[in-house]
Specification:
Layout (H helix, E strand, L loop, with lengths): L8 H12 L5 H10 L6 H14 L1 H12 L3 E13 L8 E9 L6 E6 L4 H8 L7 E4 L3 H10 L2 E4 L1 H13 L11 H19 L4 H26 L8 H16 L13 H17 L2 E3 H10 L1
Parallel strand pairs: 1-4, 1-6, 4-5
Antiparallel strand pairs: 1-2, 2-3
Helix pairs in contact: 2-3, 3-12, 5-6, 7-8, 7-10, 8-9
């Protein structure tokens, strides 16, 4: 794979797997190999990983072609720090964008970008099938992607629930009561997930019918509670932020009941991005843009 390189393909696979699956930083790998008599520096390993990341690009391109033809794409992003990036300070943040499918070949793609703006997202979603669905959090750039490409835009109930959990957490446990507003919303969202649990093994038409019977009434109840409390809570409080997020995302949050193949949340993509987040705690940053792109490909 690397002409005149010192590592075989098996050794390269071991290094890549150790870093990206086991979250073992390269300097630790170099020390580990040194105990077995391998005189390899971290820089040698890093350069090798960049070469491997470039070599798998044709596979990434094929996966992207399949992803952009999918009926539904999950979207998310997280930060990555790149020390040597032209025009940027070492302390500034860049981004790793995640995309995933929930049907057909299970595709999980990661794309590096120096920013989080629409111009970066446009490149990742160029060529997406019109009429497909996009599942995301409330980041406004995704709304632009959906509008520009004629997509059905879905919002994440798990993300929404998180805001109410944070609002409930500030209430002392001894003082929590079922009548608290945050607790009521959490219970209602739990009812939506109970319906999803019952529908897990059903086909799409049966799931849509179950949602019509059980989920729509719960959504009506949540909407009524939202209208009742939205303007009675301080907007800057945690509960106020939860209510305003729910209000802003409401049209996208209720769309999932229209189609039995659409999910209730974006957990699939968040779970796909978790190994990167775990690894980032150990290796902390990418040294160069080439290293960041290689990491995205290899993840």
């Amino acid at each position: 794979l690397i002409p005149k390189g010192v590592l075989t393909e098996s050794a390269l696979a071991w290094v890549v797997t150790s870093k990206y699956m086991d979250a073992l930083p390269l300097y630790r790998q170099a020390a580990l190999l040194g105990r077995f008599g391998g005189d390899l520096s971290r820089n040698t390993l890093a350069a090798s990983i960049v070469k491997v990341g470039e070599a798998v690009q044709p596979v990434i391109n094929l996966l992207r072609d399949h992803l952009l033809e999918a009926d539904l794409i999950h979207a998310d992003e997280t930060t990555i720090q790149v020390l040597k990036e032209p025009g940027k300070k070492a302390q500034t943040k860049s981004y790793l964008w995640a995309q995933a499918t929930n049907s057909g070949p299970p595709i999980r793609l990661f794309g590096y970008a120096s920013g989080r703006g629409a111009r970066h997202a446009d490149l990742l979603y160029a060529g997406i099938k019109r009429g497909a669905a996009l599942m995301s959090d409330g980041y406004e750039v995704y709304a632009g992607i959906a509008e520009d490409n004629g997509l059905a835009h879905l919002a994440c109930w798990a993300h929404c629930r998180r805001y109410f959990v944070e609002a409930e957490a500030v209430i002392p446990k001894a003082a929590r009561r079922p009548e608290h507003i945050a607790t009521q919303f959490i219970a209602a969202i739990g009812a939506l997930y109970a319906a999803e649990s019952r529908a897990r093994d059903l086909d799409a038409p049966a799931r849509q019918a179950l949602r019509a019977e059980h989920s729509r009434p719960v959504l009506q109840r949540i909407e009524a509670m939202l209208l009742k409390h939205l303007h009675t809570v301080v907007p800057g409080s945690l509960l106020g932020k939860a209510l305003h997020y729910l209000s802003a995302q409401w049209p996208k949050l209720i769309r999932y009941v229209e189609n039995g193949t659409w999910p209730i949340d974006n957990n699939l993509c968040e779970n796909a991005i978790r190994p990167f987040v775990v690894g980032r705690r150990n290796w902390l940053f990418a040294d160069t843009v080439a290293g960041a792109r290689a990491s995205a490909n290899l993840y």
